[in-house]
Amino acid sequence: MTHPIHDSRYSWLRLLVTLAIAAVANVGMWAVIVVMPAIETQFGASRAEASMPYTLAMIGFALGNMWLGQVVDRLGVTKALIGAAGLSALSYLLATWAPTITMLSVAHLLLGLGTAVGFGPLIADISHWFLRRRGIAVALVASGNYLSGAIWPTLLSGILARDGWQQVYLTLAVITLIVVIPLSLLLRRQVPAEAHGTAAAAAQINARSVGLSPRTLQYVLGLAGIGCCVAMSMPQVHIVSYCVGLGYGPAVGAEMLSLMLMGGVVSRIISGLVADKLGGVHTLLIGSILQCIALFLFLPYDGMVSLYVISLLFGLAQGGIVPSYALVVREYMPPQEAGARVGFVMMMTIMGMALGGWMSGWIYDVTGQYELAFVNGILWNGLNIAIIATLLIRSRPRQGRVPA
Question: In a 3-state reduction of DSSP, which class is residue 5?
Answer without folding.
Answer: coil
